[in-house]
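Internal ticket - ligand job 270, adenosine-5'-triphosphate:
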Amino acid sequence: MNAEPWLALLAGELRRQGLADPQVATVVADVRAHLRDSAEDPYRAFGAPERYAAAVAESLRGPASHARPVGPVRLQADGITKRYGRRQVLRDVNLTVRAGQIAAVVGANGCGKSTLLNICAGLISPDAGTVTVHGTLSHSPQDGGTAPYLLPDEHFALVGAGKGLTRDRSRTAGRARAGELGWQDVGATLAGQLSGGTRQKLNLVMSTLTEPDVLLLDEPYQGFDRGAYVNLWQQLWRLRDDGKAIVVVTHMLNELDQVDIVLDLTEANS
Ligand SMILES: Nc1ncnc2c1ncn2[C@@H]1O[C@H](COP(=O)(O)OP(=O)(O)OP(=O)(O)O)[C@@H](O)[C@H]1O
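stdout (structure tokens):
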């Protein structure tokens, strides 16, 4: 659908909220890119423009004021630099996340968010810099990660087996996590035949099933409807309260006041 009328309303509301023109342009460009990539209806993805604008404005006014108890460092990325051929993607990026913290990695399309997550997950090497992980780690990539000819329960069993869980316990735990995301009818549909949003929920459940100390999530809400999106953040806040260190790549700026660290890679690389 044509998202431009919704984006025009958003821009007007952001200005009314007191954002400067460059900030408005950045927010609108990010949202436009997200809508283009996801092909989602803006009302479904972001809700009413005035409400989204109000939430973004509140996020940008400052980080969460409530002090939260945090634990030891779980993930430390120091001086991460990466180039692909001539293209410098990451330049001296630093990120420290402690137990009980959520870090949001934000920035324009192509600024290196997934690259940073892949480096933190150990999937690719940086040209310079180090990543130290204290504890177990799980990574939920932006796409892929599920096997099209396996059932959701079989995914749970495979992941659970890695942690020594029986098939039954894995299925029970997986279905419970799925239920928290509003996915109740985990049944006989192969992963390849699930809707995109439901497949993303499967990805997310697999990532959290083993109770990792560090959870890396790359745009985990893609294809989610509004209810599932809300459930996702509630699940992340619960995991944070349980002492997990979470890094989430997001284009959804309205939740930034609910995270502990914001790493803007567009700014970091400029
Ligand atoms: N294996 C690769 N080889 C060459 N270039 C790559 C490779 N992977 C990523 N890039 C490039 O590096 C840049 C950063 O990509 P990355 O996927 O990390 O960005 P991103 O911030 O996650 O983007 P988006 O918001 O669109 O998901 C892009 O220009 C991309 O084309």
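Auto-summary: The domain at 74-270 is CATH 3.40.50.300 (Rossmann fold). The mean pLDDT is 86.
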